[in-house]
Each structure stands twice: as structure tokens, then as C-alpha cells.
Amino acid sequence: MSVGLNHYLFLAAVLFVLGLYAVITKKNAVTVLMGIELILNAANINFVAFSRYTDTDMDGQVFAIFVIVTAAAAAAVALAIVLNLYERLKSINLDEADSLSG
Q: How many CA atoms lie within 13 A of 38 on its CB side?
């Protein structure tokens, strides 16, 4: 049995749904950030899989590395925001972070 494009697409769909579930249902800011990372990794799997299994000149690995670098920068900024939120409110619950004043 060989691994085909459908297997990669199914894996990416599962990761996307799990990430979306984490973003929508969780109230913890760190868990929401992890859900966003799952969604971005699902997109990376799609980029690389379509690059591998299509005959076009689409370079999926380059797109995936760009997404990884962008996600790392976004995670650093988001974690700084979460630390600031915890410093001000003593909680990382997103329901308590409903205003910009501390």
C-alpha cells in the first residue's frame, strides 16, 4: 500500500478540524495559540503534498518554510501578549480580557 495524495489531504483535514475546534471552544490563550499552529501546519501539509503530487512548478516546500517562519514570529508576539495579559489580570482566560485597560 502506497501513501497517496488523499492520505495527506485527510491528515491535513484532521489537523485543521482539531485546530479549529481548539480555537473556537477553548478559553485559555495558550491553547488557542496551539490551535492556530495546528491550522497552519495543516496548510503546510497541503502545500508540500500538492507540490509533490502535481506536475506544476509550484514549490510547496518554499511556501511551507515561509509559513513556519511567519508562524514563529507570530507565536513570539502572541506569547508576549499573553505574558502581558497574565501580568495585568493574573489569568490567561480570554473571557476576562475584554478591555484594553488594565
A: 18
pTM score of the predicted model: 0.78
Average of per-residue pLDDT across 44-68: 83
Helices (H), the chain: 5-25, 29-53, 60-89
Q: How far is CA 75 from CA 7, 52, 54, 93, in A?
A: 28, 28, 31, 17
pLDDT band (50, 70, 90) for residue 60: confident
For residues 25 and 35, the answer to whether their CB atoms sit within 8 Å is no
What does CATH list as the number for 5-89?
1.10.287.3510
